[in-house]
Design a protein that fits this description.
The complex is a heterodimer of chains A (290) and B (339). Chain A is mainly α and 290 residues long. Helices cover 66% and strands 1% of the residues of chain A. In chain A, strand 1 and strand 2 form a beta hairpin. The longest helix of chain A has 30 residues. The radius of gyration of chain A is 26 Å and the shape is elongated. Chain B is of the alpha/beta class and 339 residues long. Chain B folds into 2 domains: 228 residues, P-loop containing nucleotide triphosphate hydrolases (Rossmann fold, 3-Layer(aba) Sandwich), CATH 3.40.50; 102 residues, Alpha-Beta Plaits, CATH 3.30.70. Helices cover 34% and strands 27% of the residues of chain B. In chain B, the strands form 3 sheets. A 6-stranded mixed β-sheet of chain B has the order 5-6-7-3-8-9, sandwiched between helices. In chain B, helix 4 packs across helix 5 and helix 8 runs antiparallel to helix 9. Classes of the chains: A mainly alpha (290), B alpha/beta (339).
């Protein structure tokens, strides 16, 4: 306060104020002193604020969003009816074509669920929800973990929808095989959850979801989820082997017994590392401006 | 880190309870702009403090640092003796946002439940809904809420952790008169329980009516700090202007500004003795803060505009004008004089 003008009524902040708290006049029950003394008992929440309630409410939000349900559950199922069922009885190498397509589309559904789920952080930042959460003990890691778990759960629903439809339409495979396939799909979808989170922190809200959906469609197409890789020219096939959708699809289809590309494991691990690192970097960059 | 607001000052008679807020040489820059410029401040538990200033004074920047939403470039912020982030994680500080900050696809109750789940301990969800006056709309989705209902919901979320310090940035923007009344009624009740309330506003009336202590900020600095009535009287000053009577020696456009307290008798810049005499009289009036002449136009700031007007009339001045000060003017004069 060095610029005191002559008319400045600046006083010592604590000088001329009554030194006591206003006393309780019987209108409220709690005593100010007891309230203030209780403050030292306050604790931060465990696990950075992560809780089942958050998971439950986030899942409710997902299920309420009609667009999410259509894109993650209805669309892969409808695609299966169009492309999978029509190929019933055909073989792709040593794999049943309908099963091949079923698992590929389940992978696609899980990819959409996790990527758009991660990219949701862009929307929530634009809404000011992230800022609201910054006024709570919720740790950014707990927030992202919640998003990832819920998105992967939605991905699991997508897998279940496609597989149930596959079974109902008379394409059968051993239950154990399908369960392993499903679990692999969900496991590899973590790559795309990280991808979505990274996009969510990097892209503006208006186009985070649209751009990520577009990216997914392109990746799925060249990565062998919509059509077998063999239909592409050699050069594109080579490029495709380096894309994340290819790795995820190859791993998910491995239990079907048609053999798989061992490099797919490396592919998935490397992409996961890239997207997790990218997310962490984007998050750190972002915390400066909540 | 040496805190200048010493422990003796910052602890109240509860003994062990630290200051609600201690800002120590707090500084924040955005490029070449210094938004918050070396602010020192201490707030005791239970105080209701208004952070009053024009837009761009640095209020929001200070509030953001207090809430741990941004970090200071220099200096430090302590809330109940700890960093803002720590205080937030223990539910000691909360805030009500002005806009946004809500999810359309949750219901009112779910939104409060969501927030409640994050804190280690929080008040009962239904009690909070009741207190914020939104119990009857608990089941409707946020999307369907009116602006006022959304504001009540944000308020409910701020109440949840039973915070000891509530920081509010322009809390009643967009509220109607009753809404404002209700809001401050609640806040008063909270203050009685020992809660500290710090609110940023650019409405003098609001600061005057609800705060025990008003801190005036302009250009990132504290320009005044005191009980509300002192600040009120400062902005109660009016500007009185009049055209000076023409005298024999036509003045050649002297420009002079004289502080009331340091009014020079026979200052060299006022060659016209008639004007000088008048200035002397005006300077002697009670409540006069400054007198300034531009050309033949005299402009003065005073809290007693009647006395000034009478004197000017008696001295053959014409075209008398009296204008009230906006708070903005008060800030400008305070800061420009200080510079």
């Amino acid at each position: 306060m060095t610029t005191n003008p002559t008319t400045n009524p600046t006083t010592n902040p604590t000088a001329d104020q009554t030194a006591t708290l206003r006393t309780d006049e019987g209108t409220t029950s709690a005593s100010p002193n007891r309230f203030l003394e209780s403050l030292s008992d306050r604790r931060a929440p465990r696990f950075g604020g992560f809780s089942w309630t958050l998971l439950r409410l986030e899942l409710i939000r997902k299920m309420r969003n009609r667009r999410t349900v259509i894109f993650t559950m209805v669309m892969p199922a409808v695609f299966y009816l169009i492309f999978g069922l029509t190929n019933r009885g055909e073989m792709l190498g040593s794999t049943d074509a309908a099963l091949y397509i079923s698992v590929s589309l389940a992978t696609y559904g899980a990819m959409v669920a996790t990527t758009t789920g991660g990219a949701q952080v862009a929307v929530e930042r634009a809404l000011g929800w992230s800022r609201q959460l910054a006024l709570t003990p919720l740790h950014p890691a707990a927030y992202i973990l919640t998003k990832v778990i819920v998105s992967m759960a939605l991905g699991a629903f997508s897998v279940i929808a496609v597989f149930v439809l596959t079974a109902l339409t008379g394409v059968h495979a051993p239950l154990g095989t399908m369960i392993v396939c499903g679990l692999l799909v969900i496991l590899t979808s973590s790559v795309f959850a990280a991808f979505g989170v990274m996009l969510g922190y990097l892209l503006p809200a208006e186009n985070a979801i649209q751009l990520s959906s577009m990216a997914l469609a392109v990746l799925s197409l060249i990565g062998g989820l919509f059509v077998p890789l063999a239909v592409w020219p050699d050069a594109l096939q080579t490029i495709a082997r380096f894309t994340p959708a290819y790795g995820a699809g190859e791993i998910a289809r491995a239990p079907l017994g048609g053999g798989y590309d061992r490099w797919a494991v490396i592919n998935v691990v490397v992409w996961l590392a890239i997207f997790v690192t990218g997310s962490a970097w984007a998050l750190r960059r972002d915390t400066a401006r909540v | 880190m040496t805190t200048q607001m010493t422990a003796a000052h910052s602890t109240t008679d509860q003994g062990t309870i630290p200051s609600a807020v201690v800002l120590d040489h707090l500084t924040k820059r955005f490029g070449s702009l210094t938004a918050v410029d070396d602010i020192d401040l201490s707030i005791r538990p239970g105080e209701v403090v208004a952070f009053l200033g024009p837009n761009g004074a640095g209020k929001t920047t200070t509030v953001d640092m207090l809430l741990g939403l941004s970090l200071p470039d220099e200096g430090s912020v302590e809330v109940f003796g700890m960093s803002p982030r720590r205080a937030v994680s223990r539910g000691l500080v909360s805030s009500v946002m002005q806009t946004g900050g809500l999810l359309d696809d949750l219901t009112v109750r779910e939104t409060v439940e969501y927030t409640s789940a994050i804190f280690a301990s929080s008040l009962d969800v239904d009690v909070v809904l009741e207190r914020a006056g939104i119990a009857e709309i608990a089941k409707s989705t946020v999307k369907k809420c009116s602006g006022g209902q959304k504001q009540r919901l944000r308020f409910a979320m701020a109440l949840l952790p039973d915070p000891a310090l509530i920081v509010l940035d322009e809390p009643t923007t967009g509220m109607d008169v009753t809404g404002r009344r209700d809001f401050w009624h609640e806040m008063r009740a909270d203050a009685l329980q020992g809660k500290t309330i710090l609110f940023a506003t650019h409405y003098l009336e609001e600061a005057d009516e609800f705060a025990d202590r008003v801190i005036l900020v302009a250009n990132g600095r504290i320009v005044a700090d005191g009980p509300a009535h002192e600040i009120r009287s400062m902005a109660a000053a009016k500007t009185v202007s009049a055209t000076l009577p023409l005298r024999d020696s036509e003045d050649d456009g002297i420009v002079g500004a004289v502080e009331a307290s340091a009014l020079p008798a026979g200052s060299k810049s006022f060659e016209d003795t008639g004007d000088t005499a008048l200035l002397d009289i005006l300077g002697g009036l009670a409540g006069v803060e400054s007198v300034e002449i531009q050309g033949r136009r005299l402009k003065m700031r005073t809290t007693d505009s009647d006395a000034a007007a009478r004197t000017l009339f008696d001295n053959a001045c014409t075209d008398l004008e009296i204008t009230s000060h906006s708070l903005e003017d008060a800030f400008i004069s305070l800061t420009s004089k200080g510079a």
